[in-house]
């Protein structure tokens, strides 16, 4: 019993087979014309002529036409070669089934990883947006606090000046009440007292409530 030979693919280059297919198309049309058979209805005479002319430009077809070749037999040989290559391709595909399946699994896994990374990046982007909003809010709040601080410093400076002008220190009261009028200290404090009285009168026109607290003291010192 003859053993079955292992399956091997023909070494014919695929480019040569494609050229041979072009030749077969031209040869089949020529054979139909030689046998006075009608060509396919889908082919018009112009299309047929153009197709034949295009196929005849191929170098392999031109070489084949110059040889004495049986078109029918040659057609069968080409078909057999094509079938051999087709079977080889099918066998190769079947042999690579596991690799293709593994590749599909890897691609699916990569898709899941990419989807997870996309979700993570979107969350990170949202977090950055929230942080940016918080930073903007803190900057606005800091600017408001800075304005309040400057306003308070300005008010404190003006208020401190007003208080210094209105307050009657204990030393002034003691000098005016106890020191003789001929003493220089008395004259200096008297001049300061006159300045304070004038200032309090000016502020009283602005309805400064604090003026009422010192007016009585200043008036008593003035009378003294």
Automatic annotation (TrEMBL):
Gene Ontology BP annotations: endocytic recycling; Golgi to vacuole transport; lysosomal transport; retrograde transport, endosome to Golgi
Keywords for the protein's UniProt record, in alphabetical order: Coiled coil
Domain of life: Eukaryota
GO molecular function per UniProt: syntaxin binding
Claim: Coiled coil is one of the keywords in the record: yes
Limits of the Vps52 coiled-coil domain: 92-224
Coiled-coil spans in chain: 114-141
GO cellular component: cytosol; GARP complex
InterPro entries reported for this sequence: Vps52, Vps52_CC
Keyword Coiled coil appears in the UniProt entry: yes
Record protein name field: Vacuolar protein sorting-associated protein 52 homolog
Organism: Rotaria sordida
